[in-house]
Amino acid sequence: MPEVSTELLDVATIGAEKTVLEIGFGCFNYPGTPMSTNGVPDIHLVTGEMVQKYLEQFAIESDLMPLIRLNSWVAKTERCPRGWRPTVNGRHIESTKLIFACGVPSVPAEAPSKVEPGAIVAHSRDIAKILHTLEASHDVVVLGAGKSAYDAAHLLCSMGKRVTWIIRPDGCFYPLDELS
């Protein structure tokens, strides 16, 4: 039987930043593990803190905690004879399989350099912080095709905003340098 070794790496906390605002209930539950509705904001959204607590509880109940390495940062990943060699916090890990499952990027891309004066430009990770400034806005543009773009578009539509969602024809994120 082959030897199996698993490590789960995360930058800070299990699964999410506590400040990220996510989507409504029902869109973020594992089968058989319902998310608690304790502390639901009036707008019925799931906060980053709720997601983090949910995923941490899931990890505990699924006996994943011994496999999780927090405060881990992957600087680069390269091919090697055995398969893959990510460099994590300065040390090399070799593996035959590598699953790259990054959520909301912790370092946002630079905003376009040509922006209308007074326009609000923000990364999805900061949407909770700028939500109050969007109240007066009717038209909003969302760039990207990932889950965070979907979450932002869904949230903004549920707030009654007219959302223009920009996705490249190949379905990938829209590079900001093409907007400058």
TrEMBL record:
<dbReference type="InterPro" id="IPR036188">
    <property type="entry name" value="FAD/NAD-bd_sf"/>
</dbReference>
<protein>
    <recommendedName>
        <fullName>FAD/NAD(P)-binding domain-containing protein</fullName>
    </recommendedName>
</protein>
<dbReference type="Pfam" id="PF13738">
    <property type="entry name" value="Pyr_redox_3"/>
</dbReference>
